[in-house]
Amino acid sequence: MSFTKLYNDALDSAREIADEVENYGHADPMRLIEERAYSRGVETYFANAFEIVDALRGDGNLFDEAEYEAKEMIDARDLDTNFSDWVHEVAYQGYRLLMIEQISRMGVEL
């Protein structure tokens, strides 16, 4: 997976969430973002999560921010984590951050 593919996937997800908020008046777009990011980053096969993390490296700042957020979440839960858990958490955070950026540009209030 390339960064462009990951970016476009996140953009499509953000559009779907923005449409849901606009068409159905969903009151909590952040919850929708987190659910989508969780399904993409955590509830996927390890290979898919690893591809997301690898693609995040296409934007060094985004990767660094996703890695930082993942570390914060893991530390907050006081977990001893293995490599697989870390990869899933970084994939989740990266996809989440991409969607937040895109949906904010669409004018959806978070």
Give a short overview:
With 110 residues, the protein is mainly alpha-helical.
Secondary structure layout plus pairing:
Elements: H1 3-24, H2 29-41, H3 46-56, H4 60-76, H5 83-105
Helix pairs in contact: 1-2, 1-3, 1-5, 2-5, 3-5, 4-5
Task: Supply database-style keywords.
single chain; 110 residues; mainly alpha; 5 helices; 78% helix
Helical fraction equals over 70%
Query: Main β-sheet: number of strands, strand sense, barrel status?
Result: none
Radius of gyration: 14 Å
Extended strand count: 0
Cα-to-Cα separation, first versus last residue: 28 Å
Shape: globular
Order of helices and strands: HHHHH
**Which quaternary structure do these chains form?**
single chain
Give the number of helices: 5
Low-confidence stretches: none
The helix-and-strand class reads: mainly alpha
Percent range for β-strand residues: under 5%
Q: Mean pLDDT, nearest integer?
A: 86
Outline the structure in words:
With 110 residues, this protein is mainly alpha-helical. Helices cover 78% and strands 0% of the residues. The chain is globular, with a radius of gyration of 14 Å. The model has no long low-confidence stretch (mean pLDDT 86).
